[in-house]
Write a structure and sequence with these properties.
Distance between the termini: 61 Å
CATH class of the largest domain: Mainly Alpha
Number of domains: 3
Strand order of the largest sheet: 3-2-1-4-5
Strand content: 5-15%
Oligomer: single chain
Order of helices and strands: HEEHHEHEHEHHEEHHHHHHHHHHHHHHH
Structural class: mainly alpha
CATH superfamily of the largest domain: DNA Cyclobutane Dipyrimidine Photolyase, subunit A, domain 3
Length: 503
């Protein structure tokens, strides 16, 4: 690197906050390069974000700037373009590959900006493209990718095969919650302490909201998620040492009184760039090899990070900008106001009320409420998948464009027709009843399809199968369920009921 290049400022986006984004040994800028951060108000004006999410991102950015001290110039501007102009004029800048199509197109349009390779993932874009192109099919499967990543990165391997002889221990990780228990009885997750920077952020958000400059949804309680590298490492350490052992068996279970169960709560730290995925999976594997956690728990966590998270990131880029427009099922219904406002009192369904309340107060739920309650509801009601994607992006502290487009369009809403999953992920109330304690105190009965006691998920499931029977009966994983329609003596009554359902 020339002396001139060593003096080129490097721009850090608000989700590139960890040390691996400024490490020259890992593709980062020169160690003497000045750094630039831009807090652009326009980002908060584009969407009605969850208040806790806005707080977390601004807190993380400002904490990082405080850590970097005189090396960084922190610019508060109306837009990124304005911030760049104020900071460097027409001067050159480097930046790591941004995490959204829009941001990437923007930086590529600026002749003064040189884009460095993406950081924060195990697999490069070129490596994934080679792997995907070699499939010879338009359908990509996470399980195939996951096994390839395990082998190439030597994760939970014994020689050339998987530890324990099986790649996937999903079968061991689908236990319902312990009967009669209101919680798992595991140590609580790590909770950070707020600082003066958080007070400043909250004051700014209050003022902008009062002035009508930005608008939020949800509540901004004391910050629950890490905003610094030190906090993120503390969260990782607490998870692997005190919570990982019980993660696997109950990772698909839900309890009304234990919203975090044994989950890591590290997704926001990973997506802000405070943690690197390699250090997360390596620590989990080390705990298994030391005999402190069972293999199914270590494998379940590794699969979430090195399998699903990695797969979603690359699918987002590989399928391109038009992927978000996918709507194979032709769902166009708008999201109801009570849902967008996170109004948990607007529904009589106990599971949905609990989950919406958690999103409203925290901006987070674990993956099963997201997929099998919120996403399943949206799919059954035929809501527009693009609007559903936007809702998840705005409403979750770990929600980013690259995260939510594949997760919602591809998995949750099956809007891509099966390009990344083999079947729609939805169910009737029986699944929720088996995997949670929500149904016992609910006004609806999971076994009832029609009438005042009819579970909206049970009735909605059959309604969805009927609506798309022609498509689903040709799906090997759906044909048995679809044939069940022929055994419903009250199908006409059910369909009429669902046409008028409000909650």
């Amino acid at each position: 690197m020339t002396e001139e290049e060593s003096g080129t400022p490097h721009w850090l986006f608000g989700d590139q906050l960890g040390p691996h984004f400024v490490d020259p040994a890992r593709g980062g800028p020169h160690r003497d390069a000045p750094l630039l951060m831009i807090e652009a108000r326009s980002v908060l004006r584009r969407r009605r974000f969850h208040r806790a999410k806005a707080h977390l991102v601004l807190s993380a950015m400002r904490h990082r700037a405080a850590e970097l001290g005189d090396r960084v110039r922190y610019v508060k501007a109306d837009t990124y373009r304005q911030g760049l102009r104020e900071a460097v004029g027409e001067g050159r800048v480097t930046v790591h590959h941004p995490t959204s199509h829009a941001a990437h197109a923007f930086v590529r349009s600026l002749p003064s900006v040189r884009v460095l390779p993406a950081r924060g993932f195990l697999v490069t874009h070129d490596e994934f493209r080679t792997w995907a192109d070699d499939r010879g099919t338009k359908h990509l499967r996470q399980e195939d990718f996951y096994r390839w990543v395990r082998g190439t990165h030597d994760l939970l391997m014994e020689g050339d095969g998987p530890a324990g002889g099986r790649w996937n221990l999903d079968h061991d990780n689908r236990q319902p919650p312990p009967r009669g228990s209101s919680d798992l009885g595991v140590p609580a997750p790590y909770h950070p302490r707020e600082s003066e920077i958080d007070d400043e952020v909250r004051s700014d958000l209050d003022r902008w909201s009062r002035d009508g400059d930005v608008e939020f949804v949800g509540e901004d309680a004391p910050r629950r998620f890490p905003a610094t590298r030190r906090e993120a490492l503390a969260g990782l350490r607490r998870f692997v040492e005190h919570r990982l052992a019980t993660f696997g068996a109950y990772e698909d279970a839900m309890l009304a009184g234990d919203t975090t169960m044994s989950h890591s709560l590290l997704s926001s730290s990973l997506n802000l760039g405070l943690l690197d995925p390699a250090e997360c999976v390596e620590r989990a594997e080390a705990r298994w090899r030391s005999g402190d956690v069972p293999l199914n728990s270590a494998e379940g966590f590794v699969r979430q990070i090195a399998g699903w998270r990695e797969f979603v990131w690359h699918v987002y880029w590989y399928f391109g900008t038009r992927y978000r427009e996918s709507n194979t099922l032709r769902h166009h219904e708008p999201l109801p106001g009570w849902f967008t406002e996170l109004s948990s009192d607007a529904t009589g369904a106990n599971c949905l009320s609990h989950v919406l309340d958690q999103v409203r107060t925290t901006g987070w739920t674990h993956h099963i409420p997201r997929l099998m309650v919120l996403g399943s509801l949206a799919l059954q009601r035929g809501w527009d998948p693009r609007a559903v994607t936007d809702w998840f992006h705005r409403s979750f502290v770990d929600g980013y464009d690259w995260v939510m487009v594949p997760n919602v369009v591809g998995m949750s809403q099956y809007a891509d027709g099966g390009r990344m999953t083999t079947k729609p992920y939805t169910s009737g109330g029986a699944y929720i009843d088996r995997m949670s304690d929500f149904c016992g105190s609910c006004r609806y009965k999971p076994s009832v399809r029609v009438g005042d006691d009819a579970c909206p998920f049970t009735a909605g499931y059959w309604n969805l199968l009927h609506r798309h029977r022609d498509r689903f009966e040709h799906n090997a994983r759906m044909v048995r369920a679809v044939r069940g329609l022929d055994r419903l003596t009250d199908l006409d009554e059910l369909l009429e009921q669902e046409r008028h359902r409000q909650d």
